[in-house]
Structure formats: structure tokens, C-alpha cells
Specification:
Largest sheet: none
Helix content: 55-70%
Shape: globular
Structural class: mainly alpha
InterPro entries: SASP_alpha/beta-type, SASP_DNA-binding, SASP_sf_alpha/beta
Protein name: Alpha/beta-type small acid-soluble spore protein
Pfam families: SASP
Keywords: Sporulation
Number of domains: 1
GO biological process, one term: sporulation resulting in formation of a cellular spore
Number of helices: 4
Distance between the termini: 33 Å
Length: 70
């Protein structure tokens, strides 16, 4: 079950930026993405996909695993 809250409030901006990057990489095209709407608005619009959060987690885990190896 998702908590839908940021554990480190100072990270909100970076998480929003990361969310936008993942959405673009997944080729989710909305006018909001092109018009630079707020991440909250975009998140509500594309939240039904549910894949963005999962992809974000996969990428964060992969990055940490890479750091452990290096």
C-alpha cells in the first residue's frame, strides 16, 4: 500500500523532477508535460497509469546497486 508522502520534505523538488523524467522516458505525452505544468497536476492526470512510481523505484534501486558495485 502506497503511503503517498515524502519522508524527506527537502527532496520534493528532486522527486518531482525525477517523476517528470521518468514520464518522458516512458513516452507519456500530455499537453501538461509540454506546457511545464506543475508536477502535482501532471501526477494527477497520469496517476492512473501507475507505472511511473514503479519505474521510479526500479531506477532508484538500480542506481544504488550500481553504487555498491563501484
Amino acid at each position: 500500500m502506497a503511503r503517498n508522502r515524502i519522508l524527506v520534505p527537502e527532496a520534493k523538488g528532486k522527486l518531482d523532477k525525477f517523476k517528470m523524467e521518468v514520464a518522458r522516458d516512458m513516452a507519456i505525452e500530455y499537453k501538461e508535460l509540454q506546457n511545464n505544468s506543475s508536477p502535482e497536476t501532471i501526477s494527477k492526470k497520469i496517476g492512473t497509469f501507475g507505472n511511473i512510481g514503479g519505474e521510479m523505484v526500479k531506477r532508484m534501486i538500480a542506481e544504488q546497486e550500481k553504487k555498491l558495485i563501484d
